Amino acid sequence: MSRGYSLVIGILFILSLIFIVVLGDRLGEEIERADRNMTQNAQNNASSKEALTVAYNPPSLENVPDGPQGEAILRGHELVNDTSKVLRQDAASAEDGQKRINELSCSSCHAGAGLEEDSSPLVGVAAKYPNFIARSGDIVTLEERINGCMVRSMNGEAFVEDDEDLDAMIAYFKYISEGIPVGAELPWLAQNEMKEVPTPDVAAGEEKFQQSCISCHAQDGSGTGALTGPALWGDGSFNDGAGLARMSKMAGYIQNNMPKGQEKSLTDQEASNLAAFILSQDRPEFKKHEGDWPGGGKPKDLMTKDLRQQVKDGTIKWDEVLSKSAK
Length: 327
Ligand code: HEC
Ligand code: HEC
Hints:
The chain has 327 residues and is mainly α. The protein has two domains: 61-175, Cytochrome Bc1 Complex, Chain D, domain 2, CATH 1.10.760.10; 202-326, Cytochrome c-like domain (Cytochrome Bc1 Complex, Chain D, domain 2, Orthogonal Bundle). Helices cover 49% and strands 2% of the residues. The longest helix has 50 residues, at 3-52.
């Protein structure tokens, strides 16, 4: 081998050594940088999550802006708080008013026009919608969600798209959702669902109802007024397509909110008994059950006419109605 040739090989060898060392170093730096990025991302995520958990702090109605916007917000508040009265007053005749809507108000379930933190509040809904709703099998807008309660809980007619009253409700919900970012976690929303509903004793539910509920809701459940004790069953109440027509939601609602003034005093068993008694009474029928849960997953605890009849006949199989797979 010539000396010149081994010199070239030697230099090449040294060069590649240097290359390997430098490359290794770079690689180390890269890995370190990736590491740092990852921890930083994790920290960012943690702090953005913190930022997204917002406090319950709706603005006061005394601070609405002047002018048409403020007027719409206040009109929206009035509509949500005293829905049936306001809408019936505006109807062409008393009969039209009754056809349009039942005897309830949004406040009959979303107390204080959705401002009472512990009673199905609606603060932040403008930031939550559009949102996927399994019952609709689709992403629905806030307008559509309001109409969901209009045709079920209020047993009434849906608002048409550009209805001024619907716009006013939206203005109000936007106002009480002010400052809440889209996608924020709002732990006070949709809290009234009992996870495991015990098998009810309907007769015990009736007894408890006569003891603890009739002072406000009347002995026949027809109520004393939308804001003093709304109708729990019968023509003036919600229809059997409403959320509260489900055992899990009714038992959860009763336990969290009733008897008013002594909230959270009932056991799971008592709340279940009461829910079964109330939901086995007659109420308006929802006409479009077939369209619900188009993607499957229809709950079995929705107390439709068939199930009400089964309670009366004594043939109802509560374990099936309340089975976990039903939800
Ligand atoms: C009979 C009781 C009842 C009445 C009356 C009622 N709602 Fe509801 N509303 C419910 C229940 C139950 C839910 C479902 C909560 C859940 O998902 O657990 C709901 C949900 C909603 C939601 C969605 C909340 C969320 O967190 O996604 C909006 C918005 C709403 N209602 C608006 C209204 C408006 C506006 C009215 C009056 C026009 C009204 N509701 C009347 C019972 C009622
Ligand atoms: C002191 C009066 C009072 C008593 C007692 C009372 N409620 Fe209510 N209830 C109300 C009021 C007022 C509302 C409207 C929502 C609100 O303000 O919290 C309501 C709403 C309801 C609703 C939802 C609206 C509807 O029409 O379905 C149900 C269900 C209900 N109460 C069940 C019961 C049951 C069951 C008892 C007995 C364990 C009971 N309440 C005792 C006053 C009362």
